User: Fold this.
Amino acid sequence: MPTPDAATVAAELRTAMGKLTRRVKGEDVIPLGQIAVLGALDRDGAMTTSDLAADQRVRPQSMARAVGLLLDQGLVTRRAHPTDGRKSLVELSPAGRAALEAERGRRAGWLALAIESELTEEERGVLARSAVLMERLAAGGAR
Assistant:
């Protein structure tokens, strides 16, 4: 059996990962843009709206709207910046953390159910080994 060409494997893997990511995100209740903001705050801690906009690669005005919606829902809070009185920091509220965990749980639950129902035991083993390889690629991959 010939070894698959790395470029072919890369293209097929990228396509499959994109489809799977979109399908898993389809389980979200909170809009994707808002989940991305909550996730950034969870990973990186409190940020200014400008920093969030840069992190998410959106215009500051768009981020201000997203933050406003999250504030209205009680998913984030705003507090004074410790060193610059002209700025404020946005941070995850306890309700925001709970909502983010619920979204992550829905995604993981759907994926676990799909793995269990769609794959054989042997295929699940292959997938588990592949996850380790994908993690290795993500951590160090070619630049």
About this structure: The radius of gyration is 19 Å. Residues 42 and 92 are 7 Å apart (CA to CA). The first strand starts at residue 76 and ends at 80. DSSP finds six helices and two strands in the chain.
